[in-house]
Amino acid sequence: DGGITQSPKYLFRKEGQNVTLSCEQNLNHDAMYWYRQDPGQGLRLIYYSQIVNDFQKGDIAEGYSVSREKKESFPLTVTSAQKNPTAFYLCASSSKRLAGGYTGELFFGEGSRLTVL
Amino acid sequence: KNQVEQSPQSLIILEGKNCTLQCNYTVSPFSNLRWYKQDTGRGPVSLTIMTFSENTKSNGRYTATLDADTKQSSLHITASQLSDSASYICVVSPLSGGYNKLIFGAGTRLAVHP
After folding, report:
1. DSSP classification of residue A59
2. Interface residues from chain A to B (CB-CB < 8 Å)
3. Under an 8 A CB cutoff, do A106 and B102 touch?
4. Residues in A touching B100 (Cβ below 8 Å)
5. Closest by alpha carbon to B68, among B98, B30, B13?
6. What is the Cα–Cα distance from B89 to B106, expressed in whole angstroms?
């Protein structure tokens, strides 16, 4: 079945550690996104990529890094520089970029919950 | 500043009853408005997508309406089921502004009780 797979589902991090969240899609989508979800707030964009080997910062990129070496994969690294990393992280993809009135679907993965110990 | 406000924050209804969730936005001009359902601990799933020229869109027991003049949208759930217990998120896409400027509301948490 086509979809987006995020792993791990739950992750615990100690202070000062970097952790990497995996996101893989088999929808043949060009565009991929990482969002952060905190209680009582709307989703906030961390990074996005419109094409392989290219990515752009979103609204809250500080303390995060990404790579896009393959069309199917868009891993997110939460670095020790991220001051408050405990959150629910969502990966998403779309067939085209979300601009200029794009009305196609934005598909989400099941999310990864990161907790700092 | 572009904003999307949802109300109520949370809602409890009895199984079989109808309910309506509200979304007010200040995004202008906008391209489309989306409603998502998010089960606890899961990713959001699309319910409806409406362009600025559409007034209503249905998906089974879910009906979304849009009034572009008043910048309001509502999601009506008919004959609620226990499985409708979830958060419902309103998302507005500006017509311009560059790459990926979706604006997400904070959601309405719905609990359907037997």
Report:
1. T
2. 4, 6, 31, 33, 40-45, 48, 50, 56, 58, 88, 90, 92, 97-103, 105-111, 113
3. yes
4. 31, 33, 45, 48, 58, 97-99
5. B30
6. 7
Count CB-CB contacts under 10 A for residue B58.
13
User: B44 by DSSP, 3-state: which?
Assistant: coil
Rg (CA), chain A: 14
Tell me if chain A has a CB within 8 Å of the CB of B109: no
Residue B64 contacts A, CB cutoff 8 Å: no
Burial (Cβ within 10 Å: 0-12, 13-18, ≥19) of residue B103: buried
d(CA B40, CA B85): 9
Tell me the sheet residues that pair with B45. B37
| Distance (Å) of CA B28 to CA A83, B17, B20 | 34, 34, 24
Tell me the chain A residues in contact with residue B106 when contact means C-beta distances shorter than 8 Å: 40-42
CA distance A99 to B94: 8
User: Tens-digit pLDDT profile for chain B (114 aa)?
Assistant: 779 999 999 999 999 999 999 999 998 888 889 999 999 999 999 999 999 889 999 999 999 999 999 999 999 999 999 999 999 999 998 887 554 678 999 999 999 999
